[in-house]
Amino acid sequence: MERKTSKRISLSGDTISIIVFFLILAMVMLVFTLLTDKFLTLENFSKLFKYLSNTALVALGLTFVVVVGHSDMSFHFVSCFAAMTMSFFIGKGLPPIPSILIGLLGGVMYGVLNGIAVGKYKLPDMIATIAIGSVAWGTAYLYSRGNYIYKNFLTSGIINLADGKLYGIPYPVIYLFVFYILAFIVLHRSKYGRRFYATGSNKIAATFSGINIQRYIIVAFALCTFFASFANMLMTAAQGNGNVKGGLVLLMPAYASIFVGISVFKKATVIGTFFGAFLIVMMQNGFTLLNAPFYIMDLIVGATLILAIILSRIEIKRKVKQPSPASGVPGLETGD
Amino acid sequence: MKKNKFRISKLFQPQYLLIWILLLMVLVFSYLSEPFRSPENLLEIVRSACINAVLVLGLTWIVAMGEIDVTFPDIAALGSMVTALCVFNGLSWGLSILIALAVGVIFGLFSGVLINVFKFRSLIATIGVATIAKSTAYILGQGTPIYLPKVSPSVYLIVYGKLDFNFFGKNIGIPILFLVVLALYLVAAFLQNQTKLGQYLYALGENRQAALEAGIPEKPIIFSFFVLSAMLAAAGGVMNVATYSSGQPNFQGTYFVDGLTAVFLGALVIKAGKPNVIGTLIGAILIMVLGNAMTLLGVPFYIGLIIKGILMLVGVTVIALSKVQVMQRRRAERKLEGVPVPAD
Fold first, then answer.
1. Contact (CB<8Å) A138/B304
2. Which of A12, B109, B144, B284 would staple B49 via disulfide (CB 3.0–4.6 Å)?
3. What CATH number corresponds to the domain at position B214?
4. pTM (2 decimals)?
5. A9: pLDDT strictly greater than 70
6. Distance from CA of B300 to the nearest CA of A (A)
């Protein structure tokens, strides 16, 4: 009897945080709807999702790195390199798709370097990725000595990457959902996903169960820079010029999205990352509609991150405290 | 105590590699560029390196402890904006600087509380605090820098002043800032190497669990270092007010890379792989030498980013490889003595 109730409490503890999160999400939505009638419109939501695709795609790539138990401090620098590579080839007159592919290849190359440094040579991830990021950012300047690249942007059709529509749905929204569904299948519905998690939770145990952890770490870092590069290309296409510093804003929101997700779902998941990014972007969108100045956006990211984690910590504390007076009998919790 | 014999070969060990690189760089640049080798320029390099060195002194210890603090550029920006705003509104310079330092301390306390009480990972806590600090800096100036008509002479004296020394019949002005920072770093080096606090610091970085079980007060140490780091970052921001005679809300980009590079490059010197204050000072000077020489030689600054990144990678790899060698040697010795060797 006792056992059953304690089990029920602990089960609902996990779901409570998810329910609380969605209540907060709904409340934020409600507040914005009441404050401005421009918020809950189809037009605004298509804008919101277009903006979400940047933050959420970067965060999706970073999720893999966080799942394998590392952090990447280079992807925003690398994304600048990839976007500048793409802009350079567009300027040289190459059609959009080859330019995008070459840019992505450049970005993934740095990701693989990160992975080799961290996974194979066991260098400390923070130092190695900042070093490689610094190199990547330096090389991003090489194409135009740091100047904007405008050439051929309007004529080559690259603008369509971000502004095109399929049956009225903007392309970025399609990329967003396609990549998220693919990532969800890989990370949560396949053996590869379980291996990513195994690598992150215990490297030695993972090695002994026959997982090539180096390969998974390299793939995680490569995916991270791939998605960051792609997101920065979307931004570049939307702005209509290649800018060396365009990607630097991607770092903080990506980490914030993932850790909001972790605070809700208790581990890094694709769905958690998505809703973390959604909450942050929705608040930024709402405040923009209320004519808040641009520099408030960072405050929103930071405050959301900190509040989400504090709320989840309070949750855990209560959960830990609850069973301790009841479980006086040793071995009670080991039963079925 | 065992006396360490001095051997020439010791100077070529990996932990002194960076000093050789620095000397080599100074020699090569002196050969290449006439303006570089003038004593005034060399002293100016040291002076401007000192501002960065102040900014990252606290960070050095935080990294040594196995944590990370990414707030320093943003708290420096906030410190500079607070100082500029207070002075702009008619407060005296002394009071303004104190307020800026206090604001820095508050943000340091904030990081400390998040990490200690709410068990945030330090990267996440400081990312959150950094975004808030950055935004606050922008809000103070409503999105623009605050320009000041003039800088107080005493502050100017500390940042730009020089003490004249007679050196072989030539007058050489040693920057006051350099002397101040050198004193600060010597005190820091004493704290780090000669006191219990320093040992606790490296123990926490080496093996957190063992350090906790040995009874090292983890929380007060984390608290005090995050506060110290934030306060020094704010002090760095105040010095920037004197340099640019304005409060700047945006310190991102190169400050972030340069600060972390100084600490991580510094980690390669002397303590082979562990951040330490003397190393950080050398790292900060090396970065300034690179930046200054490239400006004088007309090399664009982004080449510097590439060089710094490669230097860091090479350094880290050298340290990692030398550690592997030590491990292998120990393992071989154990095998000779017949001690069972744990599997890989």
1. yes
2. B284
3. 1.10.3470
4. 0.83
5. no
6. 8
> Total structural domains in chain B?
1
pLDDT digits (tens, 9 = 90+) for B25-42: 889 888 888 888 888 888
CATH of domain A16-322: 1.10.3470
pLDDT surpasses 70 at A286: yes
Nearest to B134 among A126, A141, A298 (CB): A298
Of all residues in chain A, what percent carry a pLDDT higher than 70?
89
Query: CB–CB of A299 and B143 under 8 A?
Result: no
Inter-chain residue contact B312 with A134, CB threshold 8 Å: yes
Give the closest of B118, B123, B308 to A309, CB-based: B118
CB atoms within 10 A of CB A234: 23
Contact between A138 and B128 using a beta-carbon 8 Å cutoff? no
B2 in any annotated domain: no
Domain that holds residue B110: 8-337
What pLDDT does residue B67 have? 85
Q: Per-residue pLDDT tens for A237-285?
A: 888 888 888 888 888 889 889 988 888 888 888 998 999 999 999 988 8
pLDDT at A12: 56
Complex ipTM, two decimals?
0.80
Q: Is A204 on the interface with B (CB under 8 A)?
A: no
- Distance from the Cα of A336 to chain B's closest Cα (Å) equals 31
For residue B10, pLDDT over 70 is answered with: no
Residues of B in contact with A299 (CB under 8 A): 131-132, 135-136, 139
A256–B128: do the CB atoms touch at under 8 Å?
yes
Averaged pLDDT score across all residues of chain A:
83
CB atoms within 10 A of CB A334: 6
- Asked if the structure places residue B342 within a domain, the reply is no
pLDDT of residue B340: 57
Q: In terms of CA atoms, which chain A residue is nearest residue B264?
A: A127
Whether residue B172 lies inside any domain: the answer is yes
